[in-house]
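<goal> How does this chain fold?
<sample>
Here is the protein in question

***
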Amino acid sequence: MSRREYYFDSIYNFISEKEDSVLGQLLINDEFETSDLQKMAWRSEIQILKKQLSEFMHGDIIFEYTIPRMGHRVDVVCVIEGIIILLEFKVGDKEYKKATSDQVMDYALDLKYFHEQSRSRYIVPINVSTKASEQQNEYYCMADNIYNTVLCNEKNIGRTIREIISQIKDSLLDTQAWIDSRYAPTPTIIEAAQALYRKHEVEVISRNDAGAKNLTITTEAISKIIDQCKNNNEKAICFVTGVPGAGKTLAGLNIANERHHFNEDEHAVFLSGNGPLVDVLQNALAIDRAEREGITKKNALRETKAFIQIIHKFRDEALTTDLAPVESVAIFDEAQRAWNKESLADFMKRKKGIPEFNQSEPEFLISIMDRHKDWAVIVCLVGGGQEIYNGEAGIQDWFDTLSENYQDWKVYLSDKITDTEYVGESDISTLLHGREYQCISDLHLGVSLRSFRSEKLALFVKLLLDEKSEEAKNIYFELKQSYPIFLTRDFEIAKKWVKDQARGTERYGLLASSEGKRLRAEGIWVPSDINHVGWFLNGKDNVDSSYYLEVAASEFKVQGLEVDYAVLAWDSDLRYTTNGFDYYKFRGTKWNHVNQEQRQRYLKNAYRVLLTRARQGLIIYIPEGSDEDPSRNPDYYNRTYRYLKDTGIEEVKG
């Protein structure tokens, strides 16, 4: 069994041990080929800490502690009087870089949120830039017992630690038990995809809290169906449901990753019609691989594009041949967003020059997989209430196709697919015209991983949008201690709030509905096309990144992805009236009422998506409007504001 740390001993023994002996242990336990630069850095750290920690006779020291499962390593951890001190060394640095302070704060946050024996402990992150000038530190501890990042050089580490531990008291900590403590992360979809791509198992990167449904249960249920089809030469289609952020995409990526058995001529493909999600994941995987393996991003991107594909390319390739695809397992992410017959026929006529095309996307995709003569499996990942594009069929077209054709295909359904978010007012038997199906409860993911501070967010948003204010208020009071949601009429206050909440590299961003056209008067532009890869992946120093709060990302750009904290600018496209929510689109110089029920559902779902993008907290900004501008009538905004207040959401004022 591999060790989580490269070196661990008491501080007393560390100081007594020969320098070369400590370095030797680090080299032996390093799983990679150690560079000369790394050896020199370790030697410097050892020399510095032998001097600086000489007065601490009680305590332990750890070098290169691996934050389990996600692959990050803390340079040095000291456990002194029960206090966890993290030191990130930059040997030779003459200035304290913000990136280093963010890095060590990220480690502190990761341990606090996900490391069992760190949750109730004081954690002190220290940026050690060895050749920088001494700084006068201000020490303050936040509500979750994490200190602000402290700045040290090679000469004042000991004095700084002594000053900190004189201010706080904690019970003693068994450091070996701390090292071995259970670690239960809830990674972002980007982090999770990177971990899977590095061949980590899904169970070690998924949440495992009591009451949370482990992703392995769902992936094992799907794998069992695949094995059965493969062994018995059968064909099957599975519908997997889940609340927003429950890990449907992660489950799909895991299946695609697991079912590549080249020696058995078995292939799987993860397909998504969500262009921004595919772009961001492909680039995130490529950047991660390029950094780990020292290859160019361009070369890494070629391979990652094979792991995750845009659904349209898969579909278009099938137009050029009657042969079965190489993949026997196809995972369709966000299957409810497949195009209906009219939309796909129109696209084929306009873009592909095929005037006689007469199939919906579900019908065409099933027909492609049905070309296999032996076995095939389709896995449909279905999000409830998330159809946001005109022409998206929901799952009804999948059921229509199965009821009319493909009688030899077995149908497996999540037992929650009967909920109104998935099938509206219909029932499964009617939609399937009485054909046989089997319900499997393990095909539903019922706990949100995105909002790891609270599993109630999806329910709160549903109640809010369904105009059940009293029920929503009850959930809000449960939410607010662990997952803050606030309201403001001042955009500057909203921006300040997310900046104040986020620590380290926690990502925040500005969100708005694609129909939020009159937000422009408030200085908020919602462009139809943004650099979504840069918005999600660039750092704080890049003006294209979400951190600048200058470019609002719409529901089309953020569906399936997430930030830590968000500002949601709420326009009067979805406005609360005396009769409940009403729906509008701004065209020309005025708001026009949306009459079509399906288009109303798209608009409502746009806000459902936007309200569930933040993992840790959300502030909703509602403009005041203007008496001088009919398109920004204050009543449009005030009624929505009062309704949100009625659901319990508290206001932040200057």
Remarks:
- The CA atoms of residues 77 and 86 lie 5 Å apart.
